[in-house]
Amino acid sequence: MHSDMVLVTSNTLEGLRLPKTIRELREQAGMTQLQVANQLGITPSTVYGWERRRNEPRASQLKALAKLFGICMEEIVFEVSDEKGARD
Question: For the whole model, what pTM was predicted?
Answer without folding.
Answer: 0.72
